[in-house]
Amino acid sequence: MRLATVSARLALPALLLSLAACAPAPIYKAAPGTLAATPTQVAQAPKQYARGQVIWGGRVVAVNNLPDHSEIEILAYPLDSSQRPKFGAGGNGRFIALLPGYAEPMNYPNGAPITVDGQLAGSRAGKVGEADYVFPLVQIARSHVWTAEEMRSGHPNINFGVGLGVGIR
Predict the structure, then answer these.
(1) Residue 16, phi then psi, degrees to nearest 5
(2) Strand (E) positions, 20-90?
(3) In the predicted model, is pLDDT for residue 165 greater than 90?
(4) Which architecture does CATH list for 39-152?
(5) How many whole angstroms separate alpha carbon 87 and alpha carbon 26?
(6) Which of 66, 71, 109, 113 is 20 to 30 Å apart from 58, CA to CA?
């Protein structure tokens, strides 16, 4: 019995380490002073967060190409440790990502998961449907549209429990 206890004690740390190793590293290095505020918090007090660095993500809502720049409206979600949007966690408001030049809408399809790294550039009043809304603006330094495979990677398909289970994928 003592051998089983020792084996279990050694196996648990190894299992936890192997699960942690599955998670990809963050794609962007957070600069010192990167804000932890959500788009909703920034929209409520934009001057308090002026020119702050952010790493935000969510789902692409729309792409609007203007004569000298493009705007990507994003419905924000919290990010996981790899900076992928966590869609089951509930939204954190909306923001507009600003890009110089033309953004090909096919590269930013509606509903696509995205993470951006950039600097706050003020806010703008607008509408979501018929409702008035304040959109924080983010001047993007870098952006990443996640593929379905990237969204799945690092999420081990391991479940613990007792009983019988059937899963269909």
Answers:
(1) -65, -40
(2) 53-65, 69-77
(3) no
(4) Beta Barrel (2.40)
(5) 17
(6) 66
What is the sign, positive or negative, of the torsion defined by CA atoms of 17, 32, 42, 72? Answer: negative
What is the CB-side half-sphere exposure of residue 130 using CA atoms within 13 A? 0
Domain ranges of the chain: 39-152
Task: Identify the band that residue 130 occupies on the pLDDT scale cut at 50, 70 and 90.
Answer: very high
The pLDDT tens digits of the residues spanning 3-49 come to 555 454 554 454 444 444 455 688 899 888 899 999 999 999 999 99
Strands 94-100 and 131-145, by their bridges, are parallel
Tokens of 110: 């509606």
Question: In this structure, what token pair is assigned to residue 27?
Answer: 């794609």
Rounded CA-CA distance 104/20 in Å is 36
